[in-house]
Amino acid sequence: MDRDTLRAFLRDMLLARAFEEAAAEQYTKGNIAGFLHLYPGEEAVAVGVIHATEPADYVVSTYREHVHALVRGTPPRQVMAELFGRRDGISRGMGGSMHLFDRERRFMGGYAIVGETYPVAIGVGYAIAMRDLPEVAICFFGDGAVNQGTFHESLNMAALWRLPVLFVCENNHYQIGTEIHRHSAVTEVFRRAAAYNIPAERVDGMDVFKVHEVTSRMLREIRSGGGPRFVECETYRLRGHSMADPGSYRPQIEVRAYASTDPVSAAISEAVPAYPSREQLAGVGRDAIDHVTEHGLGAGHLDPAEVDGIKSEVQQLVQEAVEFAKQSPDPEMAEAWRCLHVNRRNESLI
């Protein structure tokens, strides 16, 4: 892992965490209304996957999409302004938390309907295939969406037509408050792709380096004409399903266990050449030993002072985003009408 890539991973993961915590704070202050689904704990998936993509690729996301947009390059101030419902937001204040859209960066939106990302990604993939372009549609979805009919229909079409689509399951083990073994007969989600002859595998979604490695390989295979691919990223959200969910249905020992493998902390451990002793490693348990030895005994490209500098940089960026959102004006009805009449032949959408 070269220094620049490592630094980019670390910066984006720290930015993601700082942004989401700031969003939670603004929600409690009443500056953000409606639903707010936050991402802390899952940063390794967004960073690992999206850093493997090319600028010409398309990203289709779910309602938990703030971090996907940030990693794709959407300015934090535009994302925050959208959460505030302000005119300077990336969707002009009319989409809100679940409907970010960035045409310039081919971020095709967050979608509030569970399972809606599949047909959108399939449509994008079909358009790419028809034009014979070296592009890929990245389709994010959660474990709770794999029981929707659109999942099976879309995987079947993608395989049948060999569409350039990468299906990315962010498996955080809970469909809102229902644990995966209570809502799915097949809990190893990646195995479902076998029914449609799509190569698939599972990866540790708390490990940004493994996610990036697997995604990079699959994208190369797709671009070479291999058809769709499927990756299941096993991850964990450290907060409830949304700001309205305290997450009390989850055992605290489970939350603490996953928090101990926090991907942001892991990225910092990889970046800073401060290695624990054998005695310290032995005292924290088997899983932590594997985690630290895989990620911590690395290159040491950054020193602690530089890590602190990155933290300060992203905190300032997030604070500026909050202030920008507060100063942004509210959208006007005239703007909504202009958005309604945007089709090529000026036909109405309703």
UniProtKB/TrEMBL annotation:
Entry keywords, A to Z: Oxidoreductase, Thiamine pyrophosphate
GO MF annotation, one: pyruvate dehydrogenase (acetyl-transferring) activity
Regions that span the bilayer: none
Annotated GO biological process: pyruvate decarboxylation to acetyl-CoA
Record keyword Cell membrane present: no
Cofactor(s) the protein needs: thiamine diphosphate
Pfam families on file: E1_dh
Broadest EC class assigned to this enzyme: oxidoreductase
Positions of the Dehydrogenase E1 component domain: 12-264
Signal peptide: none
Domain of life where this protein originates: Bacteria
UniProt-listed Enzyme Commission number(s): 1.1.1.-
Protein name: Acetoin:2,6-dichlorophenolindophenol oxidoreductase subunit alpha
Organism: Bremerella volcania
Lineage: Bacteria, Pseudomonadati, Planctomycetota, Planctomycetia, Pirellulales
Gene: acoA
